[in-house]
Amino acid sequence: MTYGDLTRGATTKADGAYLEMRNQILLGTLEPGSRVDYVRLAASLGVSITPLREALRRLEADHLVIRNAHRDVVIAPLTEREASELVAVRQDLDLLAARLAAAQMTQQEIAAARKLVTSRDDTEALRYLRDAGLPVAADGMLSVDRAFHRMVYCGSHNQVLIQCRDALSTRTERYVIVARRLVAVPPEAVKSLHERLLAALETRDAEAAAELMRAHYRDLDLDFADVIFGRLSGRKP
């Protein structure tokens, strides 16, 4: 069993089952479209049915599982439509966050983001996400990049925007993990863009910040709908 949070101690059984199932769904161990076998899954997680049901309710709220017409619980499928819609919404939110952060992000906030970009410290990123009330995986999948971009959103000082971003976080992360398996992005390329974005935020250049955020989609293959489904370029995995 691998569930847990590197930044804190023991969790409840329901918390543990939720984190473990979330990990398995994000990694594809629990396959998209597969039906949840309560008895078998509870045994594999080492929990009873009650905490498993609570974990499934949380995963349903995350849109990672769904209940079909027969009331079976199914691992949510990965679809081109959902991916395309997530990309469209997240890209617009990202550009807005960059523009607002250029005006509002404090020097202290910029310094904290720069420290994370330089150190690539997974443990610190996990702690930041935990403190924000966001679920974190035991292996720190995408934790640094996830934390960095949330720092930019927080730099907007717009609570509605931050809440919108957090609500989409897990659904987006699932597709990004699949896309990164198909198209690897050099860590130095990610670090370079993040450093340039921070420089634009520090000089209060809103348009440059928005353009650099747009470059994430263009230069880092962040359009996961295109990468996974070949929606724009005709590529197929």
How many β-strand stretches?
2
Helix-strand pattern, N to C? HHHEEHHHHHHHH
Largest sheet geometry: 2 strands, antiparallel
Distance between the termini: 31 Å
Q: How confident overall, as mean pLDDT? A: 89
Structure description:
The structure is a single chain. The chain has 237 residues and is mainly alpha-helical. It has eleven helices and two strands, in the order αααββαααααααα. A two-stranded antiparallel sheet has the order 1-2. A hairpin with a 5-residue loop joins strand 1 and strand 2. Helix 6 crosses helix 7 and helix 7 packs antiparallel against helix 8. It is globular, with a radius of gyration of 18 Å. The two termini are 31 Å apart.
Strand and helix map with partners:
Elements: H1 13-27, H2 38-45, H3 49-61, E1 65-67, E2 73-75, H4 80-104, H5 107-119, H6 122-131, H7 143-155, H8 159-182, H9 187-202, H10 206-219, H11 224-229
Antiparallel strand pairs: 1-2
Helix pairs in contact: 1-3, 4-7, 4-8, 4-9, 4-10, 5-7, 5-9, 6-7, 7-8, 9-10
